[in-house]
Write a structure and sequence with these properties.
- Helix content is 40%, strand content 18%.
- With 201 residues, it is of the alpha/beta class.
- It has a 6-stranded mixed sheet with strand order 1-2-3-4-5-6, sandwiched between helices.
- It is globular and about 50 Å long.
């Protein structure tokens, strides 16, 4: 790739990430190719995080063009199917795209998280996806929920999940929640939380 093409590609990616005042910008995309690139970044970050957090070696993911699932992933001699889904407040993202800032004013206030809101949103995502899989009669080994909500931190989420009985869905064996890189956490990988379920040993 020529230097000019590299610069154009970088400028394009920066433009995409900055849409909506950068609200969950790491997950922004313009087309299907962008979306697949974002998904590949997320699954690779999950591989890094799960090794760092749980000591689990994850093999090279195989993208599935006929999703669901999004990827097939080898772990400990088993091939697991992995689905990705965002945890993002779409209405807040639309408001940011229309010009409101996530850092002040009413949108800032509306974007603040509580334990009740977090647990409710998490259950909503799990059951929305689980019901979809149930309707097409498939079982997902791992649902990887990824979030870059500006005011939702992994530290707060970890505390809220502690001792919480998250209702499992029969069509989803395990759920993980991964956060965009957080400088204040003190680790190089994206923070990762296990919501429920286990990986094969």
């Amino acid at each position: 790739m020529a230097e000019g093409d590299k610069n154009d590609d970088l400028k394009r990616r920066v433009r995409i990430m900055n849409k909506g005042h950068g609200y969950a910008g790491v997950f922004n995309h313009d087309d299907a190719d962008d979306k697949r690139n974002v998904e590949e970044i997320i699954i690779e970050e999950w591989r890094t995080s799960i090794k760092a957090e749980l000591g689990v070696e994850v093999g090279t993911p195989l993208s599935n063009i006929n999703d669901p699932p999004d990827f097939f992933v080898p772990i400990n001699g088993h091939q697991l199917n992995v689905e990705l889904v965002q945890l993002v407040e779409q209405e807040h993202k639309r408001r940011a795209t229309r010009g409101e800032t996530p850092f002040a004013g009413q949108l800032f206030l509306d974007m603040q998280w509580s334990k009740e809101r977090f647990i409710s949103k998490l259950q909503e995502v799990i059951y929305r996806k689980g019901n979809k899989y149930e309707n097409v009669e498939i079982t997902i080994d791992v649902l990887l929920i990824h979030t870059a909500e500006t005011w939702l931190t992994s530290t707060a989420a970890k505390g809220w999940l502690a001792g919480e009985n998250i209702e499992t869905h029969p069509s989803i064996r395990a759920v993980f929640l991964i956060f965009d890189y957080e400088p204040g956490v003190g680790v190089d990988h994206w923070p990762l939380l296990s919501v429920y379920g286990e990986l094969p040993q």
